[in-house]
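Contributing: when you submit paired examples, paste them exactly as shown. First protein:
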Amino acid sequence: MISESQLNSLYTSFNFSMVGASGALYGVLVAFAFLFPNSELMLLFFPVPIKAKYFVPGVVLLDTISALTGRSFFSPSNTAFIAHIGGAITGFLVMWYWKRNQFNQKRWN
């Protein structure tokens, strides 16, 4: 049996707000990789060209691992990894739906 104070403590420990647009940027990044998978991307401090079809899943995988373990790969921060993953999933679903219906001849009839 859980007391009211324990339940309130459990509920308020997950109640916080986030500020930023990084989830939306991940959606745009995934949409870009979906449309142009063979285009080459480069990081500012790692100037080696990497194709989008390899780079974007790698970045999303790093965020997924960081979300599951609670540790950041690059620096200790309060990064909202779940927001990044949600943006990536949303970008993929929007582009998948858009590409699926893009050449549908019966769409306007």
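Second protein:
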Amino acid sequence: MVFRLAGIDQVNRELWAICPAPQQRVDPKEYSGTGVEVGIGKRVVPSSDEVFMESVVEERPEVLSGPSLQYPDVLRQAGVHGRVTVQAIIDTRGRAEPQSVKVVESPNPGFDQSARDYVLRALFRPARLHGRAVRVLMLLPIEFKINRR
């Protein structure tokens, strides 16, 4: 699966700010004194198939509701806890796209399916860019904690 990520222009601008082009000598004879007409470009309107990085959207997705996180019994009894990081594309309706959901970090493989199920059943507030809902690739930390009574 290939994702087209938007926002590379922002990264390029940041790189130029860090590593500016070498200074060149200016020859005043090369300037005529007449200006060039310029205008303001139209802003980019996101298309529905673009996937944006979380860092370039104006409003990031937030969990509105989700199912109860199912702690695997064997891991709970063994006292195993930790954080699973799930990567997913959240669509314009606030749902994780099933084919995009992938565990990228986990303290124990026994947590992986529960974390995936949580992300797939959760409802998110969609990301927004220029006021429009957009698809966004994000990393979601899922905490498995044992509450001692």
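If you have annotations for the second protein, write them as plain sentences, like these:
Helices lie at 8-18, 73-77, 112-121.
The radius of gyration is 23 Å.
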